Task: structure prediction
Amino acid sequence: MAPSLCAICKTERALIKRPKNHAKLCKTCFITIFEDEVHHTITSSKLFYPGEKVAIGASGGKDSTVLASVLKTLNERHNYGLDLVLLSIDEGIKGYRDDSLETVKRNAVQYEMPLKVVGYDELYGWTMDQVVETIGKKGNCTYCGVFRRQALDRGAKMLDIKHVVTGHNADDVAETILMNLLRGDLSRLSRSTSIVTGDSKSDVKRSKPLKYAYEKEIVLYAHHKKLDYFSTECIYSPEAFRGSARSLIKQLERVRPSAILDIVRSGEDMARLVPGESSSTCGGTCKEKKTTAPVAVEDDIGGCGSTNSRAPGGEMAAMEKQLRENEASEGLEVDITKTVSQRKDGATDNQKALPLRNANKNSKPITRQVLGNCKRCGYMSSQDICQACMLLEGLNKNRPQIQI
Amino acid sequence: MQEQHADTQSSGGAPSPSKPLCVKCRLHEGTLDSRSQLVCRDCFSKFISAKCVKQVGIIGKDIRNPGSGSGAASQKKKYVLGLSLGVSSSVLVHLLNENVEYQLAKGRAAPFDLTVVHVDSSSLFPNNGSSSSAEETLDRYRKRYPRFEFRRVPVSDVLNLSTVDWSTLLPPSDEKTRPENEQQLSELVDRLPSSTSRTDILRLFTRHLLISATRQNECHALLLGHTTTALAELTLAETAKGRGFSLPWQVNDGPVAVVDYQPAADEPTTSQIQIYHPLRDLLRKELVTYATELTTPPLVSDLAISISSHPSSGPSQQVVSHKDLSIEEVMFLYFAEVEENYPSVVANVARTTGKLVRILGGPGAAGNEEAEDEDETTANGTSDKKRERCGLCSMPLDEQGDERWRGELGDEDVHQKEGGKGRICYGCERSLRG
Ligand SMILES: [Zn+2]
Ligand SMILES: [Zn+2]
Ligand SMILES: [Zn+2]
Ligand SMILES: [Zn+2]
Result:
């Protein structure tokens, strides 16, 4: 018999083994099913409404390029009626963005979408290069992530767009779930599983239509559609927990391909079991709302796109130290609440961060962060001053010394 | 840290200044690392015993609680201990024996009766060694701990249990209601799609058998040897197998529902059993130190314990390709590494997972969810009966999660393979049908 045939059309030769479930498909059927699945995610989660203006967070990398391509295709095929715009952030890393921004510019032409590029200098008065000059290379993944998260929202605001979609995929979500289990952060665990983030307090809604798409399938899709993308990798290493979770995900996928989606499923289910989470206390009545009900941002999913594996020390070492100090101070009897809240304030968010951050924070109850708005910039935040403004304050204090 | 000790060792009888003192007793030389502090052998052993004894005390109080038992406070407590022949459950046997000896030496009665049960899976999983070797190994335990009863239960005994809804394991076309003999059970296991699936199903069978042994002997509780490291592994492994929903029932101590699918009865009946993890505050590496250096003769050699592999791999496991590892083994290797440098992070994983809430109640009912505390046995008993449970792992079915997942992923994704007859959870579905 001839080489195996596509499991779907049963006429073409199967050329692709789907990373997700090892089904053997032809090129056309793979592209179709990939698009159909994203369409299903979009409709079942009711992500868009007709006429909505949507900004695609575009980095020129594979995820956002595939997202732009798929959204354009689906928008036309299913008459979503979306007004799609590419929104790109220039972090101000010399040499790093030049090529990827060129890629995004070409994408804008290829997909006939308007493009808006927003620079960190415009938004924060700091380029990433200047940040690195000031604080050194360690820990700037934090800055990069925090700044980038707000940058998209602020850029969207400038364009008067209320919805930003990002290219986060199933691997990213699974990674964030394992990372938050490792660092014992149930609050973030439950928030990171949501397909939509942002609530009434934020002006901009965020969503991730590729949430259930495997990274490997995104690469395959880009390859077979011959998409024009730039292989970007954040030049800074990820924090230790993320790096550790990432290498673990890769191993699990090798052992059982379904593991990535299974982790996403577990994460979504566990989100309902987190004490104090609103979703765990509501009955069946808010079921429909649940798929689209936005939750707080700060999900810090996939700060950078690096594939660096386990980075030594950093956040993990800081947390280990903090936990040990708690254990020591409490004797053998470890008070769980205190451990977690201290860790949360001390080590979770930043490693070598500026001293003023820790000084400013007091222990907070663990279960639920109350979200308000940053007193300086108005961005949604669980603290008085949002992460970006805190980081900026530290940077600005350091600036004179460095520059004089 | 070492400078500090140097300051304090002015009193006589101290070892030479080059050798650090134990931070706990400040009498002996500190030679062992305990939570990043140097302690002496004595203090290390005491630390291990104290952590275990504390948990055993908690169990004793729980059992005495009128809500959870037959109310006979004077009645002697009876426990079953699940022995994998790995280092943790072996150390648990050792520590419990120590506890009993200590009480007897003080002229008190033994605080509990213990039956140690080893579920022998060698017949279904040939690379786990032969059953004769399991029996031989158990003889070593019997010799060392004559006060306890040691029993070997072949895993095929699971065929006699009605706590498994056997229809879930058979394709609908099958005329049988359950596998009829060891051969058929073995074929069923062989058909499972991966090493992860086989390990997963074996773990469920073992759990069913241990629960059954506990109930048969009218014991008050089942004790498992999970360390804090093992609980962290369990958390991440179950998450990776799509079993995140059931974690609150697996990681915490306390009552767990047991469902009986008696062929005669129309409806399955639900009862309860108490499960505890007395080593939950200890790291695996601490138990390895204990078993190799602090017991005489060393447990590891005396009881032929393998310390380098996951219990499910068995002693004869060769280096296999990474693809053939199970998710449990991946996690075992991963946490062995994390535990080395970040033991408190490992401990924190288990603690955090323990805070997840057990959701009760049936689907669709308003206000159907409530926290299930360890002592909330009566509330549990009543609402549990209405609730549907997985026919294979006995965990509650997550209707809400299933419905949402179907909605989010659509049908294309699901393999339309032959399904079983009874209802099972997402995690069991994955293991049976890949
Ligand atoms: Zn085809
Ligand atoms: Zn702010
Ligand atoms: Zn000592
Ligand atoms: Zn199940």
